[in-house]
């Protein structure tokens, strides 16, 4: 029994040392993370449950907003404890002091909105998120890198033509640019991607991007209903904005009787003119033959 008690005592002592070592690990990682952030200021923490940036977006190169998770469910946030600070580089060095978010309200909960007074293009920004005074996330960007336009509006379509077989049709789809994008003055240049599919299909067909606000769609079946949507992006960007509302296209049905009439009508005229021509030629032949007999 004494031997078993001795072994049990040794096992308990070893497990206690292991737990003590595991408690020291987070503090060590925290210090390493802080040192890494001082070396790489654009690198944020990935600690689970802490407030973290989710997206920064500019809809028109004139304003932008940044959003983050709140961390409420992990007990890491108390009212007013999460703050955003930003800094801009006007020269080759970061000489300005960190300033707090100018507007926590306009872009919704857990966000910061920068109006045109605080937005400058071609100038790098760095933003950091703090929770109870300690930094939990940080990122750097330029405004032109985060442009994602609002959806195009006012989608409509017109019928271009119907095939001779009465099976397919071509349409022209038109739309308007996002209302807040100043495309008339060329402040922002947008290109558009149109997608369409049959109502019961799941896979959208993508058309090549265009700079115009209209595009033809060819060879749609007359017996199908289609969905059409459009999205846009800044010409120099790879990130598209959200899609427009879906436009439903229902093409006019061509009845078999109408199709048969379309095909018979020219043939009927050809037959009539053919009979008339043969009749005239017959009369001329008979008349000329009688004239030779009389002479």
Automatic annotation (TrEMBL):
<comment type="subunit">
    <text>On growth hormone (GH) binding, forms homodimers and binds JAK2 via a box 1-containing domain.</text>
</comment>
<dbReference type="InterPro" id="IPR003961">
    <property type="entry name" value="FN3_dom"/>
</dbReference>
<keyword id="KW-0732">Signal</keyword>
<dbReference type="InterPro" id="IPR003528">
    <property type="entry name" value="Long_hematopoietin_rcpt_CS"/>
</dbReference>
<dbReference type="InterPro" id="IPR015152">
    <property type="entry name" value="Growth/epo_recpt_lig-bind"/>
</dbReference>
<keyword id="KW-1133">Transmembrane helix</keyword>
<dbReference type="GO" id="GO:0004896">
    <property type="term" value="F:cytokine receptor activity"/>
</dbReference>
<keyword id="KW-0964">Secreted</keyword>
<keyword id="KW-1003">Cell membrane</keyword>
<comment type="similarity">
    <text>Belongs to the type I cytokine receptor family. Type 1 subfamily.</text>
</comment>
<keyword id="KW-0472">Membrane</keyword>
<dbReference type="GO" id="GO:0009897">
    <property type="term" value="C:external side of plasma membrane"/>
</dbReference>
<feature type="domain" description="Fibronectin type-III">
    <location>
        <begin position="151"/>
        <end position="254"/>
    </location>
</feature>
<dbReference type="GO" id="GO:0005576">
    <property type="term" value="C:extracellular region"/>
</dbReference>
<feature type="signal peptide">
    <location>
        <begin position="1"/>
        <end position="18"/>
    </location>
</feature>
<keyword id="KW-0597">Phosphoprotein</keyword>
<dbReference type="InterPro" id="IPR036116">
    <property type="entry name" value="FN3_sf"/>
</dbReference>
<keyword id="KW-1015">Disulfide bond</keyword>
<dbReference type="Pfam" id="PF00041">
    <property type="entry name" value="fn3"/>
</dbReference>
<dbReference type="InterPro" id="IPR013783">
    <property type="entry name" value="Ig-like_fold"/>
</dbReference>
<keyword id="KW-0812">Transmembrane</keyword>
<dbReference type="GO" id="GO:0006897">
    <property type="term" value="P:endocytosis"/>
</dbReference>
<dbReference type="Pfam" id="PF09067">
    <property type="entry name" value="EpoR_lig-bind"/>
</dbReference>
<keyword id="KW-0254">Endocytosis</keyword>
<feature type="transmembrane region" description="Helical">
    <location>
        <begin position="265"/>
        <end position="287"/>
    </location>
</feature>
<keyword id="KW-0325">Glycoprotein</keyword>
<dbReference type="GO" id="GO:0060396">
    <property type="term" value="P:growth hormone receptor signaling pathway"/>
</dbReference>
<keyword id="KW-0675">Receptor</keyword>
<protein>
    <recommendedName>
        <fullName>Growth hormone receptor</fullName>
    </recommendedName>
</protein>
